Amino acid sequence: MKLKLLKKSCALLGICLMSSIIVASLGIDAAQAASGSGDKLLSGNKLGGTLFPADTKAIATGAAYSWLTEGTNATDAALMATDDPAAPHMTDGGNGPEASYSSATSPAPGSIKGGTLIYDLKSVYQISTVKVWAETEADSGMKAFEVWASIDGLNFNRVGIKENTNGLGSGFAAVTLEVSPIMYAKYLKVMMQKDAAKSIMRLGEVAVWGDTPEPMAILSNNFLRASGPYNTSVPKIATNATYEWITDQPFVTQADLIKTDNDSKNDGAGGYPDLIDGSSTETQADYTVNSAWSSQGKFGTVVFDLKDVYQIGKIDVWTRAATSPVFMDGYEVLVSTDGVNYSSLHYTPNETKTTVNAITNTVSYGVPGKYAKYVKIIMHNANNSQQLTIGEIAIWGWKLYDATLPKKSVPDQVAFSTELKNYSTLYLDWSSYNSVVNQVNKYAVYVDTKDFTSTAGLTPVVTAEAKSIEQVGKFVSYFALKPETTYYVAVTPFSTTGDERKDVKTLKITTPSVLGGEKVGDIFAINDAPYGGGNYMHHGENEDLFLMNKLQLLRDLGGINKNRWWDHSNTMKTLYGKSGLNFHYFYHGPSYVAADNKGGAYTFSTYNEPDLAKRDPAGAAATIKANQESLKSVSSKSLLVEPAIAGVDRLSPTGGLNWLDDFYNSDGQNGALVKTYFDVMDAHPYIKYEYAPVPGLDAGTPEKLIDKIKELKEVMVNHGDADKPIVFTELGWSTYSGGGFLKKVDRATQRNYVARAYMHAIAGGIKTLHWYSFADDGTDAANLEHNLGLIDWNGKAKESYFGYYTMIRVLKDAEYLGAVSNVNNPYYGYQFWDEGKNRYITSLWDAAWTTTSATSKTAKIATTDEGVMVIGIDGSYKYVAAVSGFVNIPLSGAPVFIYSQKGLSVTSIQ
């Protein structure tokens, strides 16, 4: 499939005015099931055979599929080779056993390679059912298939997974996934997983059912003018939507944008504010909002309240591009149903050239299954742009339900989706449920390790009471799941009379392991003492306000999994849990473990930097052994994480690695016994200023972490402990004025080091890295611990906060592939694949560059893409068109992330 990266047209949705995540969808009532309720065949399968009789209802969509050849779920080559481009087997209307109607993977022993196809339906449809016909015989089997949906062909969301339960000898039997809640998509990615116990996977057919949706309509209440893109013939839903500018941290709107937003001056629209006055030509200043001059790198953050929940189809953002320079280089879109929990959809760069000297539209698209009542748009004035000028913003989409239908005396069952953030945190969304027609004002959430068809006799884990945020937003987070456990989940409705509909259809989910590792984002963690530590300056009467501000900023990061802390406070478990974080605790005996597990915590440590405290290694080993025994007696799933040495070095007889050797050797058997006393290796690999620098680089740079990881692993290997997972519960750099223990860095350098350190840790196989720390402990410029934070003591985001934010957005759902070839010190780079973005992500930087460097190097990169998207850790956005098969990307000490549909090759850096 060829999709032009970020070059959309009005033809995309048939109208010219238009994370991994683990997600499952609930099956719907038989009366609603797509292939049996009048929905139409969308995928262009040939009619007239046994699979699709001649009278099968179908829409001539012109749909076509291609096999995915890129990424970690690329299609087995033999499967593609046995397909027929002239008469594609997956839509030829025929099934096996004839090879002319089916395709098969290679019979390589132990192979688990499957097949992934992408349907282009040519326009957006409401998707209801996907079927896959797969052979189930002694040598052939499909384990399951997943469905991912997209509107723009770039940003996908997993909307369902279906296991193959057909018995042996079933032949080419169908496996059916009924997609629910409501799903609008133009592209469908169907990932078929081979049964690892079978030698091959043979497929017969794939089919998609659905229907044509209502025309996409304006949701953002833009004024419709006599002519122009927002004219009176444009479909518009009377949402009465409003918007407001955000002035809170972290993406504070530049004040002049708000000052110049006129709701009653000369717009000819009867008092519509500038962003929705219906004018895209913006020939007069009163039609636009403008930041102050010299607003390089500033933000314009606006939140639209659509007043109800919708599926977003398209977003128009009109901004000025001029050679002054005046230029918005891009924006991020986030959606929410409750106004508290936001999900990032994507970054969108502005492809316009500044030489156009005009107001132009930078278009982005929604993501199927990511519903919105609130749409947050964070616009970034380019780092070299003098001014941000915004003309119009228009949000398009579809209704999810009709609130004017007749009221029901018995409410429908609740269709919902689930998302596992990690092993303990579960998000549930049923925002497409028609609570008005069903006369429902309360919901109960049930989670059990046994399947159930009725909630009678069960106790809900969460109740969304009337008028609560959860009830209004129809969204709940639950943060107390166990790792590696299968659960069955249901949501029940309560009518306004107080009656609960108790019959349910559950969703099955299985949580990952404590340490995860299936996706890059499992590594993201933090150190944040809710009320401070040893060098902490108290905020006095504002301490609770500071804590609440921290929790909001932690939530806004959107991908932090754990916080490391020593206290077992139930209040903090709840506060941080609702912000999406669980805890890594210090072990204080078995009496706390059950309650900690209930709060989602499954990792514990005995010591903090015992080498620095000069603890006796043998005594420490004995204590850890005793703690392991008492911990496991309460919870076999809990992990003991030890010993958190302060340094990965041999700079002194008590250096961290020397202490670790003595710790292992204390059993007199080279660690044969000691290694069984704990589950996970823990170290604090601070890059001390006294370490010998990497050749050609300054002392104290993150690239030294590569050596530190290698040295730690060598010690583990020498003691027969090579297979033990590794975490770092502390690592950081301080923006202090010192420079003795750690290299003195400015704020921009600290931001760069955050991203570089995490990527080196990912490449080194580190499972979790707790950045130290989230907040500065005080205001003393010379104090190391007063300046280690991502936010300052007053709660204002530092550059490193924005860097961590960007890194999470780019990498949290990705899979690590390896180091970029042909890139050597002082240049570094790693490559990732993101299934949801359906693209490669290549990071690159120049480790020798500093914030005082006068010039930058340029990487010449070969690509078969028409162009690539570049996201900078400095907050910048850029689309770079390829010229004769190459793109040139400037490199500095600030990593860039390059999005491409095909793999990239660095040919030179100079």
TrEMBL record:
A Pfam family hit: F5_F8_type_C
InterPro entries the record matches: FA58C (IPR000421), Galactose-bd-like_sf (IPR008979), GH (IPR017853), Glycosyl_Hydrolase_39 (IPR051923)
UniProt keyword Mitochondrion, yes or no: no
Keyword annotations: Signal
SUPFAM superfamilies, A to Z: (Trans)glycosidases, Galactose-binding domain-like
Domain F5/8 type C: 247-398
Signal peptide boundaries: 1-24
Name of the protein described by the UniProt record: F5/8 type C domain-containing protein
Organism: Paenibacillus planticolens
